[in-house]
Amino acid sequence: MIECHGLQWGAGGRALTPPLDLQLTAGSLTAVIGSNGSGKSSLLKVIAGLDRPLAGKITCEVPLMGGVAYLPQQQHVDRQFPIRLAELVSAGLWRSRLGRSEKRIRLHKVLSDWGLLDLQSQGLHALSGGELQRALLARLSLTDARVLLLDEPEAALDDVGLRLLWQHIERWQREGRTLVLVSHNLAGLSHHNCDGLLVARSGCIKAPIRQFADERQRLGLVA
């Protein structure tokens, strides 16, 4: 589904890591981990096509009606933009060919799934960090994208929000979608069946996430 060959990325023409070769299959879940400034979020933006790589090639094979969906960090969302939560979430349907009534049904369902029905008329400025994060995840849920790139999806979520997030991640995997997420929650990730991609200046290592959790002190990672 996603293949990287000799991929390098970074700002100012300076590569953050040695060349990366990577293959991620349909239905896989990969957590990108590493220290601050190591290039985790930048890697997601390159895969999403938002930034150009410095070198190498990315091949992202998706069905004609699929695509790639990207969840940004919520700090990049303008909370003063004058729209309601329901309007933010419904943006996930902008490529959909469904009729108006079908779109309303899907929107209602996803708002219910993420516990947002009572908040749908709220402006973004009135939402807590966790509520906004669930809204962004709900918007992602409405897409038909076969590749989901999630930049710190656990940010600001309480226990209920985290449970909803992982229920959706497991469902997306069962549907055969390819997921890549950036996370600092190494201890939490170790409870889930996923691979890890350690991003560091010395190179990138892909291995089961439990291996990184067991060796986090040696690798200089924070649990």
Question: How would you describe this structure in keywords?
Answer:
single chain; 223 residues; alpha/beta; Rossmann fold; 2 domains; six-stranded mixed beta sheet; three-stranded antiparallel beta sheet; 8 helices; 32% helix; 22% strand
Number of strands: 9
Which structural class best describes the helix and strand composition?
alpha/beta
- Could you say what the CATH topology of the largest domain is called? Rossmann fold
Number of domains: 2
CATH architecture tag of the largest domain = 3-Layer(aba) Sandwich
Query: For the terminal residues, how far apart are their CA atoms?
Result: 30 Å
Strand order in the sheet with the most strands: 5-6-7-3-8-9
Q: Rounded to an integer, what's the Rg over CA atoms? A: 18 Å
Poorly predicted runs are: none
β-strand percent reads: 15-25%
Principal-axis shape: globular
What does this structure look like?
The protein has 223 residues and is an alpha/beta fold. It has 2 domains: 1-67 and 148-217, P-loop containing nucleotide triphosphate hydrolases (Rossmann fold, 3-Layer(aba) Sandwich); 79-143, no CATH class. Helix content is 32%, strand content 22%. The protein has 8 helices and 9 strands. Strands 5-6-7-3-8-9 form a 6-stranded mixed sheet, sandwiched between helices. It has a 3-stranded antiparallel sheet with strand order 2-1-4, with no helix packed on it. Helix 5 (159-174) links the parallel strand 6 (147-151) and strand 7 (178-182). The protein is globular, with a radius of gyration of 18 Å. The two termini are 30 Å apart. The mean pLDDT is 91.
